[in-house]
Amino acid sequence: MTKEQERARARRRHEEQQKTAKPPVSDSTRDKQVFGVILAVILVIAAVIVVPKLIGSSDTPAAASANPSATPTAGATPTSKGGLVAGQKLAAGCTAPPANQANPKQQSTVPPKAEAAGKTFVATVKTTCGTITMELDGTKAPQTVASFLNLAKTGYWAPSPCHRLTTEGIYVLQCGDPTGSGEGGPGYQFGIENAPADGKYPRGVLAMARMQDPNSNGGQFFITYKETQLPTEGGGYTIFGKVTKGLDIVDKIAAGGLVTAGQPTPVNPISILSVSVTEKKA
Length: 282
What we know:
The protein is α+β, with helices and mostly antiparallel strands.
C-alpha cells in the first residue's frame, strides 16, 4: 500500500469518528446542565409540598362576599375548646363556658317544613350570660324554623358557644356550632328562605349563617345587634325570627370587642346551655 493510500484510509477513519463523536462540553455549559438538574429537583419537591396547600380541602367553605372575615359564614372560624382562651374574660353576670362538644348529634334527613308552616313559635335560649327569648316565624321561613325546632328538641346545641363576633360594618353575634370551630353542622343542609332583597337586617334579627352554596344552611345562626347591610349575591341570608327579650345580653358581649383585632373570637365568651321551643297560640 502506498503512502497516499494510507493517508486516504486514515482520513476516512477520522471522518467516521467525527460522525459519531459528541461535541466537547465546556465548563460553563456543564455548570448550566448541573444547575438545571438541581432546579428541576427543587421544583418537583416544591410541587409536592405546596400544591396540596393551594388546592385545600374540598370541605373548606368559601365566603359569600368580598369581605369574608365579616360576613356571617358557616365555616373556618377558630375558637376555644371550652373555658377561657388567652385575652378572654367573663362579662358581669356571666359564668364560665363549658367545654365544646367533640361529637355533636348528627342527622341525615332535613326535617319536614310542614311541622312549622303557618305557625309562630317562642324559643327560650338559656346561656352562660342569661336567657334570650326569640320569636320564630314559621310562615315566612317554614323549613328553617322546622330545622330549629328539631335541633332544639334533640339537644343539638346543648352546649354550644357563640363562636364569632363581628364589630366593623357588620354587627352580628354568630352561634350554633357545638364544636366551636365554625365548621360544625347537624348532618343535613337546606336552602335560603325569606332573605331581604335589599340586604338590610334590622337590629334584633335572627338569621341563618351559611357557606357560599345557597343550599348550605344548617345549624349556625346569627343575631344582629345593630342594623346591618349584608351582600345579596348568592341569595342573601334567611331571616327566620327576632329577639324579643335579652338583646341587652348580646349588646354586652359585643361591647367587649374581640380578643385580637381582626379575629372573630369575642373577649367576653357566651355559650348556649339549652334551647326549648313552644308554639305561640293566637
